[in-house]
Amino acid sequence: MKEYCVAVTGALGAVGQEMLSILESRQFPIKKLKLLDIAENVGKTVKFCGKEVSVELSEPNAFKEVDIALFAVSDNVSKKLAPEAVKNGAIVIDNSSTWRMDPEVPLVVPEVNPEVLRQHKGIIANPNCSTIIAMVPLKPLHEFAGLKRIIASTYQAVSGAGIAGIGELKDQSRNVLDNKPIAPKVFAHQIAFNLIPHIDYFEENAYTHEEMKMFREGRKILGLPELMVNCTCARVPVVRSHSESITIETERPITPDQAREVLNKAPGLKVVDRPENNEYPMPVDTANQDLIFVGRIREDISSTGNGLTFWCCGDQVRKGAALNAVQIAETIIKMELI
Amino acid sequence: MKEYCVAVTGALGAVGQEMLSILESRQFPIKKLKLLDIAENVGKTVKFCGKEVSVELSEPNAFKEVDIALFAVSDNVSKKLAPEAVKNGAIVIDNSSTWRMDPEVPLVVPEVNPEVLRQHKGIIANPNCSTIIAMVPLKPLHEFAGLKRIIASTYQAVSGAGIAGIGELKDQSRNVLDNKPIAPKVFAHQIAFNLIPHIDYFEENAYTHEEMKMFREGRKILGLPELMVNCTCARVPVVRSHSESITIETERPITPDQAREVLNKAPGLKVVDRPENNEYPMPVDTANQDLIFVGRIREDISSTGNGLTFWCCGDQVRKGAALNAVQIAETIIKMELI
After folding, report:
1. Which of A74, A100, B63, B102 could form a disulfide with B85 if both were Cys (CB 3.0 to 4.6 A apart)?
2. Which reaction is recorded as catalysed by this protein (chains A, B) (predicted)?
């Protein structure tokens, strides 16, 4: 089997660390691994497959021998560095939001739209985390019944804001329990024992940028430029795994039983829907694993057309970011696009 | 001003305690206060307006001199005891779900449908907490634009499950932070740093009873027997105040500006909707106060008709239960129905 020189850029962040763990556990065919990060992290070492690997500076020349570069960096860094990495011969799989809506850049969830990878010109974008988690169940439902409209409310874990987000939730929780003062830094407000209906910046239409990602990226990934999408995103005091309450309207009827059958057969999903046994998707059960759990599947009793309602959860650091990026890399190899 | 003999039944529970605090702070015209509870609590004392009041046994004869009885007891207890209290001359304002859908019993949110109090026959039902919180903003929006459909996802605090629910969240949170084992008792699963998309029992249509309360009670309170309602209820690790993400479809157009104007003028509401200053409703800001906060008001961009989306929060122990019950009592007095 052919092996590749793989770079992880932003190797010491939450998503970068998860990418390394996934590359290792999935035995990704790596000839050489390069860990790239900002100047202050250069020289630090990370264990990978039993060997210590030193962090190098993330700069254009670092990509000269790289085949596949997994980017887990900010929008600004990606904007400058991704084209340089491509010039130096790497295929960039980028987790930031910089390239996602670029018509030249494929935006890919491997279970949903792998075929668009054929059009890649060096940069491939990894979608927004809550969008990925919604797309995996929505694709098979769309194939069965034709998706017309999505109304989603999210319950997003703090790890969406990186390692610092997790620390803030834990520290604040302890302080609140001990009646000590708290001082929010990562989030705009207290997150412990609270909710914040605000993720990313507000756009002119009063939706947040995060909410509009579900709208714009959802349309692009599903190839449905007319799809109607309404999303409300809230940060919740959960460490890991995003949850979503989703109601859809479809062209053709779909019963809950048909939906369960379709979802059971689709890739990347696990149907957890036995309410009589108190079994439904929950964040604690979906953390640190690869599948999107779907449950609470039922008819939308408010619909005058064809409506379905469900609840899904997925580990947004894994499937919502690091795993999806590695799966894109695996798909590129499998489709012989490298 | 006329004064009344008031009983609080279930006086030592979370809602009962809140009722006492609200009666005191609102200077309810009380001639005599009776605290009623189960046998094991008889003889305990509670401070009210500076005086210690002893708890008496909650049984039919206890209501003989009572004018207004606020019930904060279980469905089963209410089913037996409320008719006995009425026989003994009391008007019962009941917080359980037993009487809510009885066509003979008014189901009342004083800001929304006080007029139905005129039909009372002794028992008046206090609606479900998340339903009350939705009704307060939905009523003025309905009056302006005509409500056709509601799609709601709730984020419900643990205090909806009483004092034991709060204790379980706090104890579990500390144990999770300290890597100690946890053993759920009040909730079906871990609630600390987790979400549970399951409140009350599952009905045959796969909705929970809590979700169907929004459907059934919403229709009854708004006097709209055809209203289409889809609700998903989730328990979140928040101590106090329920939040709701609500999308509505209306007969006539309503812009976000019109909605803000209408909501600003309506009773029981505070519009908190300045995203540019990171101001929107949050549970920590709405706990221990009386108003429902509404914000994130925006056009439903997925609607082909007239659609609006918003986010609201309210203290479900106060407005969602105890305050609403006391307000019903105040309204009965004001309307001279006692």
Report:
1. B63
2. L-aspartate 4-semialdehyde + phosphate + NADP(+) = 4-phospho-L-aspartate + NADPH + H(+)
